[in-house]
Amino acid sequence: MPPLLSPLPPGYNAEVAHMAAFFNETLGFCPNSVLTLQRRPAIAKAFIALNRAVMTNEGRVSSAFKRLIGYVASHAAGCQYCQAHTIRAAERYGAAPEQLAHVWEYRTHPAFNDAERAALDFAIAAASVPNAVTETIEQNLRRYWDEGEIVEILAVVALFGFLNRWNDSMGTPLEAPALKTANRYLAARGWTGGKHVQTTPAPANETPPPETPIRTWRDVAFVAVQAVLMGAYLANPEALQISIPEAVRHLGLLLAVGGAGILTWAFVNLGRSLTAFPTPKVEGQLVTTGIYRWARHPIYSGVLMIALGWAAFSQSGWRLVLFAALTALFWAKSSYEEHLLARRYPEYAEYRRRVGRFGPKWHW
Fold first, then answer.
1. pLDDT tens track for 199-249
2. Are 141 and 242 in a shared domain?
3. Cα–Cα distance measured from residue 321 to residue 67, given in angstroms and rounded to the nearest whole number
4. Can you tell me the distance from the alpha carbon of 157 to that of 192, in angstroms, rounded to the nearest whole number?
5. Could you say which DSSP state residue 361 is in?
6. Residues 161, 167, 168, 172: what is their CA dihedral angle, to the nearest 10 degrees?
7. How many structural domains does the chain have?
8. 113 inside domain
């Protein structure tokens, strides 16, 4: 079944295209629903602004959980287009694999806690027609969530009330990346895509933009300065030679070897979330296990241990100076990175309170 109206090209309206960059983070592409809305740019811009406001985290309702709320609301409304989008966005924002795989069983599955069950019960009842919110559902919701969080939860349901009706009535064609994610998580439970899966390619948004966020000048600056300092560290080992006792030199060598081990451990723990830039990867997850139980930035810790240890072993005053410069850079870079992580993951504030920056909390 062809859509009621076909999506317009992504650059059809410059203002809408600028605002729609938001969806490159949430989905990895601009959705066809927004591209269709461009026929009335004022509506498209108002919708994007509302979407951003609703999905901003002010309390404990995380980005991933908001998408799961959107999923169960869309499932209740029967919109297969929005089901595909919400499950994809939940995955990209780091929802636990167990929750993605068992969202249909949230009432009984241990991956969900009682607060999440209360919110999802409310979302389904609020999305139902006629409305099925009862006093019991309301009381259970208030038991776990404060007034501001309830506003966020219901705002997600209401937002998807608009999207469910828009996309199901429009027959919006489903984009290839969303189709792939939905087939992975939803097809086994009877999801087919319905009218949103086209027999011929959708004309407007066939090639999605890259799945990584647009780099800011700060990302580039931090990585460039880091590369210069590391290059300088390696470039002139004979400069400013100093005399260091033999025992200290060998302690420095042990420190460097330990730093290499920490660096390797951190790389393994991060997996696909690894990036040289402060801005976290869109498809990454917040890692708080493994070595990240003891330090928030063990990669920087490992590099600094190598830099200090090898400077001592090689008796290089030049390398000691550059170690100090790297320490200052990593402090600034990690501070900026944490600002971005706190915006992405509401739980990061508690993690930062418990865990030290470059080592165990009691050392820093």
1. 544 444 444 444 444 557 788 999 999 999 999 998 876 778 889 999 999
2. no
3. 48
4. 23
5. G
6. -170
7. 2
8. yes
